[in-house]
Amino acid sequence: MITTAAMLMSGHGVSQGLVCAPVARLTPPATTDPEEAPGDNPAHEVQRVREALAQVARQLTAAAADGGVAGAILQAAAAMAQDPALLQAAAGHIGQGSPTAHSVTLAIDAYCRQLRELGGYMADRVTDLEDIRNRAIALLLDVPLPGIPQPGGPFVLVAHDLSPADTAHLATSDAVALLTEAGGPTSHTAILSRSLGLPAVVGCHEAARLTDGTPVILDGRTGTVEVHPTPQRLHQARQQSQATPQHQTFGPGRTADGHGIALLTNIGTAADAARAAAADTEGVGLFRTEFLFLNRREAPTADEQTEAYTQVFRNFAGRPITVRTLDAGSDKPLPFLRLPDEENPAPGIRGLRTARLQPDALATQLSALAAAQHHTGAQLKVMAPMVSTPNEAAHFADLARSHGLDTVGVMIEVPAAALRAGDIIRHVDFVSIGTNDLAQYVMAADRTHHAVADLLDLWQPAVLSLVAQVGRAAADLGRPAGLCGEAAADPLLAAVLAGLQMSSLSMATPAVATVRDQLARLTMQQCQEMASAALDASDPDQARTAVQKAISQFS
Ligand code: PEP
Ligand code: MG
Description:
By secondary structure, this protein is of the alpha/beta class. Helix content is 45%, strand content 14%. Residues 286, 288, 327, 413, 434-437, 484-485 line the site of phosphoenolpyruvate (PEP).
């Protein structure tokens, strides 16, 4: 139990910014206990379930009042909650002596199984039914509703960790910062917080002790969380957080002596695309297409994908957009691909490797991308994730070109691909380094595991050595090598990456302006000196210190 005395917690700061607000925890769905004593009066228990389902329907109707596509879906879900068959099934279990809340679980889970078997549109309704189940159970057990809390004002969202699905409604919530017990610098929470411009601290185990309403000052730069700050500290921090940075540069990224380094953005959803399109950037360096289809149990058709890509492409007329084919598997499961469970999924079937089991999914996506390019005239580049060998790169390039896509690349995120970058680049028009996964595989450190987050420090010299190797190989062949991992969003590191011959850097939209300012203050020669200093270091802290020292000597 937290006392009201001020105290300091720390984790990894992964998205800059200072926020003062009370915390509210992400509420996990309650589970029901089959061993709980059943109610004395079955008729009364059935009435409780009826009222709970009616209450769920009212909640969903109220949420639907906002209108739009989400409104129509919520209204349909409200109707499902009132379906008499659901109540009847739960009543049946109560009649057989099951505890009340568990009867709802049994009834709704049976429907979910049937819908999954039916497939198609019906299978996609499973998520709605599960939401109805979770809400009804929370009401019956008198525990908070699951999901992103609504404490009625700005709050710091605290969770053990956040999955991509948990965060679907984050952008429209009052969350002003994120704090997780698990996760490292390249976890989903880190990626998401940067794209939303929300300050974030991850890998802070002590956050497990925070209770709702506790005031904190969270600093996403230092990774610190001050719990129950004094009024003086609050006043000071509020003033600091209101100071908005003034940017001095605009337009294309370039060093002080005019070397261009394209500054691009990473997007995953239509909302990201709209934010990125409005910003001063040179285009999209990474469109994570799997984020469009995370909750889908049935494969999106070619027409549906064409429509989704067309909408995104229209935002970027006149600017290049690099689309990554589905990076499914491991920490980004796509239920519709029906990939088998694996003991060790990170080096298993993910990214391009999913095409070994599901070649049609890749072919459908490539034809949808070609169709969307045809409709919009987009300056489209297409790349595959998780490529390990020159043969895989050649095969992907042939396949993409056979669909009419003419600018084809691959991601370099497997050490083998970095080591043999020259052999890979020969087959493609460009490569893009994914340092999040490259670090995971070079350092043999699970990117979702907080206990090894230090090994995934974006400044690891071993990772930078491989980036340097790829930069050299690409320069020798006269082809572009960009970088789209989280490392690009760190302004100091971005200068190092420019010195390692990266032709473009792609990052969350809010980071672009600061990176552009930083590059504009340095010549290419200085970036190269900073890169040498980082490569000569033996650990990330030493690399950072050496680069800071180098930069202080330039001015
Ligand atoms: C990466 O691995 O660096 C990358 C950009 O891809 P993702 O984070 O989506 O795996
Ligand atoms: Mg990756």
